[in-house]
Amino acid sequence: MAQTMLESFVGAFGLRSNGSMAVDLVAGCPVSLNFGKRNVTVKTAMEKEQFEAVEDALNASLASSGIGKAIFDKGFVQFVLNRLDKAVEEYSALRGAIQTYIAPASSQLPCPACGMGSCDIAAFHDFSEDSLSSRNEFVRTHASCHAKIVEQSRTRISSGEGNYPLGILGAILGAVLVLAVSLLIVMLADTVFAILFAAVPFAAGMGYRLFKGPYGLKGILTIAVISILAFAGYIYIECSHFIAAYLETSIFYVMSQFEAVVQAAFSPEYLAEDWFQIISFVVGLVLSIIVNPASAKLALNDIQGFESMVLPLGNQELPQIIEQ
Prior knowledge:
Blueprint: H1 2-13, E1 16-18, E2 21-26, E3 29-35, E4 40-45, H2 48-63, E5 71-73, E6 76-81, H3 87-106, E7 121-126, E8 136-141, H4 143-159, H5 164-189, H6 194-210, H7 217-247, H8 251-256, H9 258-265, H10 268-273, H11 275-291, H12 296-307, E9 311-312
Antiparallel strand pairs: 1-2, 2-3, 3-4, 4-6, 5-6, 7-8, 7-9
């Protein structure tokens, strides 16, 4: 559904697209569109003071089109198109409102890289700064500034730069979080969900990348090892829980009996009882290795995807990709 909707938007408005995203220029104002299963999210940059000055008039102009009120968040105005059968018509009306109320202010926005004006392209810029997660937004910038940032990103990914200790911490937190939920379900409801065990390596991978772990073979090996160790820890605590319940004693006392619990938890008999969890985890581990969240190649492909949506300002009818 999302892909079909994206294609209809591309056909209707001549948008540049990649994956589930598309970009547009409305009177020189960069606009990004994210196509989900149930809605289309539209975003464009604007200063808070300028938004507040036109907010009422902007929302009033869209009221008859059925579009919800604009939301301002971290320097961007966001609209959500929820009626997918009317989304093309709603976006057409939204483009008119953007041209009237947002585009004049957009032309005054400085380049996010150098802080200067006279921007000549619209491109995705990472606004994450020192935060852990990336936040790429489609904005006005300079071709020279953008090219420099992209080259730095490509060099960092290819060379394996990153914060390895912090990446390890992120992988541990991701794996432990999912396994903690799984353990609580076992303790409280005496049941298991396969999806949670399969998700452990993916959670570890997300944590690794979220905490800026370096790309490359070392990354995927780290994610795999931490996932396996975390799952082994889950088996140990789960076994301790059952032993404590049987002996009617504290789980912490049982866990302190390390050698005895290890022998029981990793015995063929006990592992056979946990076959469902083990198979689910192994399937998830294999899939995560195939997907490889620490793959430098995939990261470089992501950059190329963003680069395919770079648009020169002032040429809205037939935008051309800037050659690198």
